[in-house]
Amino acid sequence: MLRLTRVWLLWRRPPAAGVPAKNLGLRKVASGVSPPGSASPRAVNIFDRDLKRKQKNWAARQPEPRKFDYLKEEVGSRIADRVYDIARDFPLALDLGCGRGYIAQHLNKETVGKFFQADIAENALKNTLETEIPTVSVLADEEFLPFRENTFDLVVSSLSLHWVNDLPRALEQIRYVLKPDGVFLGAMFGGDTLYELRCSLQLAETEREGGFSPHVSPFTAVNDLGHLLGRAGFNTLTVDTDEIQVNYPGMFELMEDLQGMGESNCAWNRKALLHRNTMLAAAAVYGEMYRNEDGSVPATYQIYYMIGWKYHDSQARPAERGSATVSFGELGKINSLMSQEKKSQ
Amino acid sequence: MSGNAAVWGRVRSRLRAFPERLSACGAEAAAYGRCVQASTAPGGRLRKDLCAQEFEALRSCFLAAAKKTQKGGH
């Protein structure tokens, strides 16, 4: 049986000529800022950022990029909704991992004065979507932000932090570039994303080849996300989750769309080849295990939305210990207590 | 993209035909899927070639569909 090189989720690109192998994954960027503290002691290198940049560049240069944008557009519009929910205007905002600028197109000049759009793929920045806000495009990696401390009122990030190697450091950098009382609004893929695809590939590979290797990248758990945000120094943080289910005709169409979105696998531990037999088996298993009534197969995208604020004196703080005037035991009488307070005022 | 554009184009066009051929083999695919799914039930153990028979049926159906579409002309 002939082995064909697969290009869906598992694709190895040779390094660019002239780049010594040991420099792969390191980014030489003249950063104007030296963030407090170096890389966290347990810094991991899971993803090949160079390859991710190439994949995103390729995805942005397709003849019909809008065909694959549906997920990012949807999440971008939801993030823009959340920006509107905050009763504030933001003179200066940053979009990290903006892609073609899915958030900016939904916002207006009154809410955001000026928008900096940062992404690692230059082709995406060249084809940004129309927006009425004045924008500046910056080629920057999410982990190495070239901005000074206390610059931005608002930082948004939609569906790009799941490819970041050192997430604690990226979040710390975001907090660093935020002004005091600035806010960070992010959306990331969560643990249940594409679980159907992951399971089908796992089962098919076990049955066909006797073992399996990871094909879907690891996602952050929701508890860890809360801890990470707290550790990065954000206040008043909230994480909520949302699920978007998209139906596809079959597994191959799903994989084609994932590649078109620029979401192909770029983990260092990916397998270079996916056998034709295994793909066929996985598609059969996917169809049988998860099929809808009308014959299509669903793919779940679990999105975590997070919001965190940079500390400022005006923000609410937990009260001092021992300053309580009412006990929790009187919670049942809260209506009478509140009307008493109103009377006394 | 990477080096050889001709190879690239051939591989991708072959892959693009997969969904169509798979849809022609719905019954075999379902049988294989059911066999694998059965092994995920408590007490089952999935090991290599557990469903080899069903997969062979699926593969031969798939290859037959490939020959048919080739004969009919791409």
How would you describe what is shown here?
The complex is a heterodimer of chains A (345) and B (74). Chain A is globular. Chain A is of the alpha/beta class and 345 residues long. Chain A has helices spanning 49-60, 70-85, 122-126, 167-177, 195-209, 222-232, 251-260, 276-290, 334-344, and strands spanning 90-96, 112-119, 135-139, 152-158, 178-189, 235-248, 297-309. Chain A starts with 48 loop residues before the first helix and ends with a helix. Chain A has a seven-stranded mixed beta sheet with strand order 3-2-1-4-5-7-6, with helices on both faces. In chain A, strand 4 (152-158), helix 4 and strand 5 form a beta-alpha-beta unit. The radius of gyration of chain B is 16 Å and the shape is elongated. In chain B, helix 3 runs antiparallel to helix 4 (52-71). The two termini of chain B are 25 Å apart. Classes of the chains: A alpha/beta (345), B mainly alpha (74). Chain A binds chain B through residues 4-7, 13-14, 58, 203-204, 206-210, 249-250, 252-253, 277, 279-281, 283-289, and chain B through 1-2, 11-12, 14-15, 18-19, 22-23, 28-30, 32-34, 36-37, 39-40, 46-51, 55, 58-59, 62. Chain B: This is NADH:ubiquinone oxidoreductase complex assembly factor 8. Chain B: InterPro entries: NDUFAF8 (IPR034595). Chain A: Residues 94-185 form the Methyltransferase type domain.
Basic shape of chain A: globular
* Tally of separate helices of chain B: 4
Structural class of chain B: mainly alpha
Estimated structural class of chain A: alpha/beta
- Averaged pLDDT of chain A: 84
What is the tally of beta strands of chain A?
7
Organism (chain A): Equus przewalskii (Przewalski's horse)
Family (chain A): Belongs to the methyltransferase superfamily.
Keywords (chain A): Methyltransferase, Transferase
Protein name (chain A): Arginine-hydroxylase NDUFAF5, mitochondrial
